[in-house]
Design a protein that fits this description.
It is an enzyme of class 2 (transferase). By secondary structure, the protein is of the alpha+beta class. It contains seven helices and five strands. It folds into two domains: 87 residues, Glutaredoxin; 100 residues, Up-down Bundle (Glutathione S-transferase Yfyf (Class Pi), Chain A, domain 2), CATH 1.20.1050.
Length: 204
């Protein structure tokens, strides 16, 4: 398999899952401005929308959209417990998490990266994000991870999106449980390996 990624973008989530799952995979970096991959390919021939992630499967087919990719990967390695079994209520709880992160957090943080966004709109988005972050802190409760005791694909996605706060002036200090959660996830060896491979932390 090959993951098309851009350092620190939402493609970090499936990158983490690939490492947590012990998959054999390759990385190909994408310049999101030029839409060129590191091998000189026009990325729009891979994903016409031009954004990451995209996962090329062993048969050459392409899967896009992070929440779909991470569930696909989790189902390939059920023994890793990265997602509850399909058809169970807990699997729908996982989907609930992934949809919330995608629509209520990812889109909000993502908009703040757009320098053309008016200041008035930024203030509205930051207020909405504060409400959503308070909800996440409550929802996490005392469990170490989003789904309880087991690290899941929801954690890979939530960790990725919460990590954007430092780049868009969203201070997580009002939610100490979120900061503690980020620390727990960041300490996982697979997460450290993914961060290092993307040049986000020094390689050990």
């Amino acid at each position: 398999m090959k993951l098309y990624y851009s350092p620190g973008a939402c493609s970090l989530s499936p990158h983490i899952v690939l490492r947590e799952g012990g998959f054999d995979f390759r990385l190909e970096r994408v310049d999101l401005q030029s839409k060129q991959t590191e091998t000189g390919t026009d990325y729009r021939t891979i994903n016409p929308l031009g954004y990451v992630p995209a996962l090329q499967l062993d048969d050459g087919s392409i899967l896009t959209e992070g929440p779909a990719i991470v569930q696909y990967l989790a189902d390939r390695v059920p023994e890793k417990r990265l997602a509850p079994p399909a058809g169970t209520l807990e699997r729908y709880r996982l989907m609930e998490w992934l949809n919330f992160i995608s629509t209520e957090l990812h889109k909000g943080f993502g908009a703040l990266f757009n320098r053309a966004f008016p200041q008035e709109a930024r203030a509205i988005i930051q207020t909405q994000l504060a409400q959503r972050l308070a909800h996440v802190e409550r929802k996490l409760g005392t469990g170490p991870y989003a789904m309880g005791q087991d690290f899941s694909v929801a954690d890979a996605y939530l960790f990725t999106v919460l990590g954007w706060g430092e780049y868009v002036n969203v201070d997580l200090a009002p939610w100490p449980a979120l900061l503690a959660y980020l620390g727990r996830v960041a300490a996982r060896p697979a997460v450290q390996a993914a961060l290092a491979a993307e040049g986000l932390v020094p390689a050990k």
